[in-house]
Amino acid sequence: MLRTWISALLVCAGLCLTGCSTEETTDEGTGILLVANRGASSIAQFKRASSAEGAILPQTTIRGANTRLSQPGQISYDATTKKLIVPNGGDNSVLFFDDVLNQSEGVPPTRFLTGLGTQLNRPVGVQLDSAHDQLYVANGGSNNIVVFGNASTIEGGTAPVRTLSGSSTRISGISAMVLDSNNDRLWVADPVANALLVFNNASTLNGNVPPNRYILGTNTKLTSPQSLLFINSQLFVACTSSILRFDQSDSIDGNIAPTATIEGTATLLSRPQQMVLRPDKDELFVVDSGASAVLVYENPATINGGPSPLRRIQGAQTGFSDPAGLALDFSANQ
Question: Domain map of the chain by residue range?
Answer without folding.
Answer: 60-276+299-310
